[in-house]
Specification:
heterodimer; A: alpha/beta; 9-stranded mixed beta sheet; 8-stranded parallel beta sheet; 18 helices; B: 5-stranded parallel beta sheet
């Protein structure tokens, strides 16, 4: 039995409504408990800010990030955030580290832990390539991991929707999650991946997908229905059509409205819209490009069925990587940048393109503003998950920098003062004076994630929850984040303590221990007769069209370290 | 009598996963679906080349020893070396590769793969211009134009054309070869070229010229092309460019004829640009024809563990990468390494003379199931089980799709994964002692 008593912690735990109250936290055998014995090891928090371990609900940390590393060896040397990037030699406790936007697997684990984060969700797993994602997961130390499996341009999905076979569709989703050991349903540019198989795209919700006689709207509604039928822990996770195009805010709102009619089967949202910054653009071209955040935020403020994440931009180099194949080709042509593409047979597309966000570019400046506008204009932080869509908007190691933008109008003004007038005319950020407090920040970096992924043991400090805890070198009440934002940034950049399952993994910003995390995956129950008729269709697909055998497609148990199987009951 | 279905063939980068294997008394007695190369591997045609026991060179002769003795001797070489080259690791599992990288990191070694003498330039090309690719099933289901450039799958990847490319039938390609245009670009009329609709014979080492000419035509600058380029008449180049442009889905498969000929990585760089240009008109992708069954896997594992796909120097404690400086042959030609591990590859047979000469001068540890010219240079020889037959593990197909290779029969040999783990443990023990 191992026990820890964290004394004098200034606890910020929105799940319990606790806002920087000084109290003790007790830990026994990796869980938070009400009390411990006198033998407990004592950590004196000395009044410092204490939160649950951070939970990044949308990041690209395994799988296609390897293509990003592969084509950008220069990234390995970049050290834009000292202590959290660049080349670091191995030590007795840690493996060698490289990188900034695309760090090696070990660096990902260490650096998230230094930020006080303990759980991540890889937001795109192609089913056929899922084994690769899990191989990388195995080599990311410390963190608990989960991944979202891609279904938005999948032939079997589109055929079942076209043929109006919702039960078989649900059975296929359940099988696909099991095959890929995924946690939820990711939809990227629905239908667009298949169109990209012919070098084309879809232009919106009602554009037919070539050869499959379905529309993106039908794909979204079909998958949402299957998602709820299976009672999955997470809602569908949607990357909207028309990402990265001026004027796309209308498609985004249209997509959000579609889901008003979807009834969630669990106590969570029915839709999660991801990296909305890239989907909240107004104007008709890059010439008259401007923010669409006010329109999108207005809609979200009046809606109660959805959550979203930001995809906040960080100035400097980034690497875009997405299953949205056509958008990456367009990026590479527009930016004259190198381009990688990896379409997956019968399933989806993807691409990787590096880019640079410059404050001198009015487009980039407006993009930077849009993420913050979304976070500040949407009133309820419980609808918001803070992300940079790492490394699409910028690397996760910049989270502390981005927190200062959210917490300090003065800091924002500093950045904005370098923008051109043209950029200022296209954004509304300068008129927003809202400043988030630690409580709201904890909601966006922990609380929302716990709720939207139905992981009640994560993202909070309730008794019974995992003892994933971050203590930051900040004395709430004695610091004004609006003016002392550099202190805020420093504290969030290297936790005083990070505990993972009750083990001190970071102390004074340095790695102390590197335990292995868990892998969460969902095993959804489907009636046998429905599953067996669906399997016959699938056997045909494998025999005729796939290039691997069905038996070799499933990710084997040996690839999952410390797996946690989440069972759900389907409603058929 | 166990019959194992859907076994993965661990011979070439096609990684066919539909092999049926019959095992009797721990012997493979029947193979179905494999090509002649795969078949030979499965039925043990190379059994006579197996290294029977671990060996250490004493007084110029290799003498049999136990695994423990061989591991200890190898570990001693590693701890007393200041500059070890670890090379190969492409005919083994990703798990063994991962262990080898950790060993290289802990010993401050340089680790490089067989890409150093095959598709290494393709990686450099991808770092310049990216890698517009797809999984092989995309070609099977969609491609109506297929080009084999500087490669000869009939001999090197015998089932490639029937399973994935020219002859395969898929969703949008149900007529298979009949509805496909197949072109071969090569310096000689190979057996693959004999099967093609169009054979373009180019002058040795002039691939870059031809790719550039194709790009010019695709981009509407036909007028700048001279009457012949790379020994190919202009009309023929225009016809090829039009075939590519008018495809519904085109794929260029490229081999070592492109990567190891003059202009090296610039050929791949230009080809990636050509693919990007073609996508202005149609859908096009490119796929490297990788040779060893898991050379792609080395690149993948090395990239996620170190940030780089090959030629990784751990001398500073963190990964440093500069092919041309840190590649296996760069080092050997400079006579820099003072020890080497050669595993699951044969430097003795494939490296230039000057490199081999240096290998002969320094202590060499070989880890391999088979005796080969490297054995003649080795001071410590550690035999291993054959992955995909006697040991399980992960491998990556040429299109970066990973598969789990099954263990089919038992073996007295240790696996590469175990050998690397034992070696690492022994090195740690010796270092602690020191």
């Amino acid at each position: 039995m191992s026990e820890i008593l964290i004394k004098n912690a200034s606890v910020c735990d929105p799940a319990q409504g606790i806002n920087c109250e000084t109290m003790d936290i007790c830990v026994r055998d990796g869980k938070i408990v009400d009390s411990v014995s006198g033998n407990a090891k004592v950590i004196d928090a000395e009044g410092r800010l204490t939160m649950a371990g951070g939970f990044d609900g949308h990041t690209h940390s395994a799988g296609k990030i390897n293509v990003g590393r592969f084509i950008n060896p220069n990234d390995a040397r970049k050290n834009l955030v000292p202590g959290l990037s660049g080349q670091v030699a191995r030590t007795e406790k840690t493996r060698a580290q490289v990188g900034y936007n695309t760090p090696n697997t070990y660096a990902i684990g260490y650096r998230y832990a230094k930020l006080g984060y303990t759980t991540i969700c890889e937001a795109a797993i192609p089913l056929l390539a899922a084994r690769h994602t899990h191989e990388e997961f195995k080599e990311i130390p410390i963190l608990d991991k989960m991944g979202l499996s891609l279904f938005g341009s999948n032939w079997q999905v589109m055929e079942y929707i076209r043929d109006k076979e919702p039960e078989k569709l649900a059975a296929y989703i359940a099988w696909g999650l099991k095959a890929s050991r995924g946690y939820g349903v990711k939809i990227v540019n629905p239908g667009g991946g298949e169109a990209w198989g012919w070098g084309k795209n879809v232009s919106g919700l009602y554009d037919p997908v070539p050869n499959f006689d379905v529309t993106p709207e039908e794909i979204l509604m079909g998958l949402a229905e299957a998602n709820e039928r299976l009672q999955l822990p997470h809602s569908v996770h949607v990357h909207c059509n028309n990402l990265g195009k001026p004027g796309n805010y209308a498609t985004t709102i249209e997509t959000m409205k579609l889901f008003e009619k979807v009834k969630p089967s669990r106590d969570r949202q029915s839709l999660h819209v991801t990296h909305v910054q890239f989907n909240a653009y107004a104007g008709t071209s890059w010439r008259d490009f401007e923010t669409g955040a006010p329109m999108v935020s207005d809609y979200i403020n009046g809606a109660n069925h959805l959550t979203f994440d930001l995809g906040q931009v960080i100035f400097g180099p980034a690497v875009t990587m997405t299953a949205d194949g056509p958008v990456e080709y367009a990026n590479s042509r527009m930016l004259h940048e190198k381009w990688s593409n990896q379409d997956i047979e019968l399933e989806d597309a993807s691409g990787v393109v590096p880019l640079f966000y410059s404050p001198k570019s009015f487009v980039n400046a407006v993009q930077w503003a849009i993420g913050l506008e979304l976070a500040l204009l949407v009133k309820d932080p419980w609808k918001i998950m803070f992300t940079t869509d790492s490394p699409n908007g910028g690397s996760f190691v910049n989270y502390p920098e981005a927190f200062t933008y959210l917490m300090s109008a003065k800091r924002r003004e500093e950045v904005i003062s370098g923008f051109s007038k043209m950029a200022l005319d296209r954004m509304v950020l300068p008129g927003i004076d809202r400043e988030l407090d630690f409580y709201e920040l904890a909601v966006m970096t922990r609380g929302t994630q716990s709720k939207i992924y139905s992981r009640p043991e994560k993202g909070n400090l309730k008794a019974g929850s995992d003892a994933d805890i971050a203590i930051y070198d900040i004395l709430p009440g004695q610091i004004d984040p609006a003016t002392e934002y550099q202190k805020v940034k420093k504290a969030f950049s290297g936790a005083a303590y990070t505990l993972k399952d009750g083990v001190v993994v970071v102390k004074d910003g340095e790695i102390e221990a590197t335990p292995k995390g868990r892998i969460y995956w969902v095993n959804a129950k489907v009636p046998e007769n429905i599953d067996s008729t669906m399997q016959k269709d699938l056997d045909f697909k494998f025999k005729k069209y796939y290039t691997v055998s069905k038996s070799n497609y499933m990710v084997e148990d040996m690839y999952l370290e410390n797996p946690v199987e989440i069972g759900t009951e389907g409603v058929f | 009598m166990p019959v194992i279905k859907d076994a993965v063939c661990s011979l070439c980068g096609s990684l066919c996963d539909d092999i049926t294997v019959t095992v009797e008394d721990n012997k493979i007695t029947k193979i179905e679906n494999a090509c002649i190369l795969g078949h030979s591997k499965f039925v043990g045609m190379f059994e006579h080349d197996r290294i029977e026991t671990p060996m250490i060179r004493k007084d110029g002769e290799l003498v049999s020893v136990s695994y423990e003795e061989a591991i200890e001797a190898a570990a001693k070489i590693l701890v007393s070396s200041r500059r070890t080259l670890s090379y190969g690791w492409c005919s083994t599992s990703c798990e063994a590769i991962s262990g080898a990288i950790q060993l290289a990191e802990e010993t401050g070694s340089i680790i490089d793969s067989t890409a150093n003498v095959c598709h290494g330039p393709s990686a450099l090309a991808a770092q310049e211009k990216g890698s517009p690719s797809a999984s092989l099933g995309e070609i099977k289901n969609r491609a109506d134009v297929i080009v084999f450039w500087g490669c000869n799958p009939v001999h090197a990847h015998p089932r490639h054309m029937s399973r994935y490319s020219s002859f395969s039938k898929g969703f949008f390609t149900e007529k298979g070869r009949k509805a496909r245009t197949m072109a071969v670009i090569d310096v000689r009329k190979t057996d693959t070229a004999k099967l093609a609709d169009k054979y373009v014979e180019i002058e040795q080492g002039s691939d870059l010229l031809l790719v550039t000419a194709l790009r010019s035509i695709v981009n509407g600058h036909e007028d700048v092309i001279p009457e012949t380029v790379a020994g190919v008449p202009k009309a023929e180049i225009i016809e090829l460019a039009e075939t590519l442009k008018n495809a519904k889905f085109a794929c260029i498969f490229f081999g070592m004829g492109v990567t190891q000929s003059r202009s090296k990585y610039k050929n791949g760089d230009a080809m990636s640009s050509l693919i990007s240009d073609l996508n202005q008109h149609t859908k096009a992708v490119m796929i490297g024809m990788r040779g060893h069954y898991n050379v792609t896997g080395f690149g993948q594992v090395a990239t996620w563990e170190t940030g780089f796909p090959m030629a990784i120097d751990f001398a500073k404690g963190y990964p440093y990468y500069n092919p041309g400086e840190t590649g296996a042959n760069d080092l050997l030609v400079r006579e820099e390494p003072d020890a080497a591990i050669i595993a699951a590859a044969d430097a003795g047979a494939h490296f230039p003379q000057k490199a081999v000469r240096h290998l002969a001068r320094i202590p060499v540890i070989q880890i391999d199931p088979y005796a080969n010219p490297t054995t003649e240079l080795a001071d410590v020889v550690i035999p291993s089980a054959i992955v995909g037959i006697e040991a399980e593990g992960t491998a990556y197909r040429m299109d970066a799709i990973s598969l789990h290779m099954k263990k089919l029969i038992d073996s007295k040999f240790k696996t590469d994964e175990e050998i690397v783990k034992d070696l690492t443990e022994k090195v740690r023990e010796l270092k602690r002692g020191a």
